Amino acid sequence: MAARCQVTGVTPQFGNQISHSHRRTKRRFDPNIQKKTYWVPSLGRKVTLNLSVKGIKTIDVRGIDAVVADLLKRGEKL
To answer: Which residues are CB-neighbours of 8 under 8 A, at least 6 positions away?
Structure first.
């Protein structure tokens, strides 16, 4: 599963892990990606999305129909 949210577009970020002795090594900050299935009344079917938790909250606020309409307008495959 790709570490990218389909709604917010958040991807992994990179930085340094700093030890107690202050040595730096590269690390990766992964977003909290969840696979969620929603029933979309406008399409008449279920849609499975890879979402960050912020993306799930966005769907709760705006509604699944509005978010799916934006995804289709962007050309995202559902």
So the answer is: 52, 54, 55, 58
- Residue entry with tokens 């769907």: 59
Q: Which residues contact 11 (CB under 8 A, 6 or more apart)?
A: 3, 4, 31
Calculate Rg over the CA atoms of the chain: 16
Q: What is the DSSP string of 55-73?
A: HHHHHHHH-HHHHHHHHHH
CA angle 7, 8, 11 (to 5 degrees): 115
Predicted TM-score (pTM) of this structure: 0.84
What is the spatial distance between Cα 68 and Cα 65, in angstroms, rounded to a whole number?
5
The yes-or-no verdict on residue 1 having pLDDT over 70 is no
